[in-house]
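Final report, results section. Input specification for complex C-07:
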Amino acid sequence: MRLPLLFATACCISISHPALAGEVQVAVAANFTAPMQDIAKAFEQDTGHRVIAAFGSTGQLYAQISHGAPFEVFLAADDTTPARAESDGLAVSGSRFTYATGALALWSADAGLISDGAQLLRSGNFEHLAIANPKTAPYGLAATQVMQQLGLTQALAPKLVEGQSIGQTYQFVASGNAEVGFVALSQVSRDGEITSGSAWQVPAALYQPIRQDAVLLNTGADNDAAAALLDYLKGEQAAAVISRYGYGH
Amino acid sequence: MIHIRLKQQLAAFTLDLDLTLPARGISAIVGPSGSGKTTLLRCIAGLERAEQAFIEVNGHCWQDSQRGLWLAPHKRALGYVFQEASLFDHLNVQANLNYGRHRSAEPASDQQATQIIELLGIAQLLQRSTSGLSGGERQRVGIARALLANPRLLLLDEPLTALDPQRKADILPYLERLHAELDMPLLYVSHSPDEVARLADHLVLLDNGTLRASGPLQTLLPRLDLPMAHSDDARSVLHGQVSACDDRYQLLELTLDGSPLQLRLPHSALPLGQRVRVAVQARDVSLALEKPQHSSVLNQLPAHIEAIEPGSHPAQALVRLALGDNVLLARLTRYSVDQLQLQPGLPVWVQIKAVALFD
Amino acid sequence: MSLPLDSADLAAIWLTLKLASLTTLVLLLIGTPLAWWLAHTRSRLKGPISALVALPLVLPPTVLGFYLLVALGPHGPIGALTQQLGLGTLAFSFSGLVIGSVCYSMPFVVQPIQNAFESIGKRPLEVAATLGASPLDRFFTVALPLARPGIITASVLGFAHTLGEFGVVLMIGGNIPERTRVVSVQIFNHVEAMDYASAHWLAGGVLICSFVILLLLNRRGRLTVMPGARR
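Structure output:
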């Protein structure tokens, strides 16, 4: 009689163990969707915590956070928005760090179009060049820096079409409506290979690094799971995933 | 002449007719609800396209399915007056009247137009909006609108049914004047025996999509094999002309067509020789074997019994009488028929208690 | 006090008004015959076509925008056609926005006109036919004038709905100043850039403008229902 009872109690304890594990709500910049899903899966397996992730544009996520959305960790697509969250008193100061560095690519859905990207840009041999909105998207800002460095700002201005996000910019190019566009390398490469079309990985010297910063929000200050996730993002396993998706770490 | 042959499958039955109608005058189309009267009119107008049809109006062929001929409604020179006067509410009365006139190949002349507007009593309405008109006024405008296009055929689908009795009484005289003064044929669908007795020259009786009878009004009304004679207000229609006026007693004397017989009735004076029609209800006619003496009944005329049939009520019998060339219907009790030993061929005296005159 | 609206905002406002006007005009031209057909046809296609017209009522605009982007692209059917006609592709152009807005606002124009045509019924048209009016004549002299209240409602709704269009423009517009950057996109830009003051001014303007339009429409609607007030 005693043994089964003991066994049942043990079962109860072991079953209830995951319930003791925490839950963390993360706001994630849309460009980091795929790597975040991989990282979250690994993180949940390793720690037993649950990740509830919401994906959106950095600006929208910030608007939601500043109006009381219950996110605990914020993975932005830039470094200014998390800094602003900190200075606005929405985030735990000192918690901010760069979890990934974006790389810019000039991409076309046409496999034969891009051999030398800079050369193509100079030739202007296309009707539309898609970039992300430089006012709101870091990849868009980086694209304008590239054009400036190449001295092509004026020449390319009439050909520019802007996507509201880097995802939409990708869409413009993927559908062929724009022949070329500046997109995130992470969107068009896996494990160092371009997945479709043709691309030119823009030399890092041509634009300011696209730092994607993470920050711990006040709502998650006392949440162990939130702290664990931020630690995990700094770790080896996350780094492997991040670089596989074409980001620097 | 108007020739209509139609075969059209309807939901409940097949409309299957072969009809010849006089080239002028009013032909009334009667029959129970759902017997195909409106469909017949719509087929004639081309609003419905009958599968097999031949429609010819005074020499103009509108449809001949054997030749593959079908004229769209707007190419048929016809007027159509619907049950509810469907005036165009975005146009005033004058513009409504002009609508058909401006589109007609041979519109009414200015003089005819003035006459029609006078005839229907709408001269003072011309600048009015349609929304302020009474039901009777609307219907008169609707009829004038159709007439001003000067059609070869005017179709009227129960034009008075939607009106209350007072409005009906207001508008009937206008229709009678139309009948007297216009030279175009009218097809008139009606449910009202009163309207039919007043207006129709020719009667078409439909039943379940087939032609039950077609002929002059005064021969069809008293036919004992047709339902009209058996209705509660069965009546005969007689034609004649004014032969004398008695100013002192305010009595009018009519000489019936095709006979020397005369009818007298209370009425103000009319011009001598004017043609009139009168209706006599079957229940207002009684019979005697000899000329009644000392009776208050004004009209006592010699006649012959043509036929006797049981009435719709077991106590009653219907007697058809020849009054010169005219036919008169009398409704008696069967008791009286047996008491007087009435039988076809017997000469009798008829007494007529009331006569309605339609001038 | 000066409005905190810069020239880009004003250009967006002007572009939006231009887009809404042109879209409404195009919709009246193609929506009226379509509404007429829907009101009178006994074709089996009526159901599917009605559903197609009504789709933008329930679809997220981004879905419509996405398919438009694909359709307008060089490999899409519309794109192939416009390229054959020598027009190039229409994404990122004002014409492309007009096409998108026409699809997006279609039900708001077609349905009121269709309802108006249906409520007229067959009778006035039959009367006109018996008075010698050909089908085209009947359409212009009877059906259109009688459907006027419905057509006015349709124009106002089409205009107002296009004013507020966002998802479709976002998907096919490309945010090009004076060509595709309409007010709603400009508001989005301001929000994204965290310039909430400018966003408020523009958004408030759209809100008030739409409210006033609907208010006027409502008052008109009451007036036309009142008997005798028509003339």
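Residues 222-231 of chain C have pLDDT under 50 and may be disordered. Chain C has one domain: 7-120+152-225. This concludes the modelling results for the funded period.
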